[in-house]
């Protein structure tokens, strides 16, 4: 309850800040949040993987580390050689990841239709953001793929996901008593997201959702999984173990900035870099939730 109230209060606080900050300062604030909490929430993947796989031998851990880095490099190469496919895959993977993070713990079993709902929810969140910032989104996609998408590429998926979300929501209201209890609150959350995305700029709106509704809740789940409970001592321990991986990520983004700082291409490269570190992170979190569920059973 406290976590939920915090997210709502901080969201409206950020909306208020929007009226005071220029678009430039909104973007700067967004980058600061993403580079701190956003990157941090995915910087402990190797530690999580170590516990998930119960790896004790250094050779086995190095093997997993090599595989993790290979996935990152493969994603980077995919964005370079096949950007359209890479971007499409990134959206699909991120959609499921956002939905799973938001809804895990609110369903007793992850059936096929529940997983479908995870994807639909996350997909709707992404395209809700895209819908309110179509010009900026199409510009970024153009820089990544050299292809200018028509407006329909955003509006049609948005309305399809909206319809599917409503239909799946009605199904769960009718069949799931736990879902029925929180349905109105979740609709309110979606209205808050719509307000955020409508009023704020693209980067600032994305950062508000990504940090306060995804990254911080994810870190809380990770801390609880790694150390058994959430408290500030465990959180600082989490940050300490994540520090070097976080620093490497910041270094990579800094290199991108110095290469593209005088070009508008940096925004596109920034999203491509986020995609590269997101893909293996999603796989780790799926496995974390899976082993967490098994231990609870």
From TrEMBL:
State the EC number(s). 1.13.11.63
Keyword Chaperone among UniProt keywords = no
GO MF, any single term? carotenoid dioxygenase activity
Q: Name one Pfam family in it.
A: BCD
**Which cofactors, by name?**
Fe(2+)
Record key words, sorted: Cell membrane, Dioxygenase, Iron, Membrane, Metal-binding, Monooxygenase, Oxidoreductase, Transmembrane, Transmembrane helix
Question: Reaction catalysed by this chain?
Answer: all-trans-beta-carotene + O2 = 2 all-trans-retinal
General function of this protein: Catalyzes the cleavage of beta-carotene at its central double bond (15,15') to yield two molecules of all-trans-retinal.
User: What protein name is recorded for this chain?
Assistant: Probable beta-carotene 15,15'-dioxygenase
A cellular component annotation (GO) from this entry: plasma membrane
TM ranges are: 32-49, 112-133, 153-175, 187-212, 242-260, 269-290
Q: Which InterPro entries match?
A: Blh_diox (IPR022270)
Give the record's family classification. Belongs to the Brp/Blh beta-carotene diooxygenase family.
- Cell location: Cell membrane
What Gene Ontology biological process does one annotation of this record name?
carotene catabolic process
Membrane topology, as annotated? Multi-pass membrane protein
Q: Which HAMAP family match?
A: Beta_carotene_diox (MF_02093)
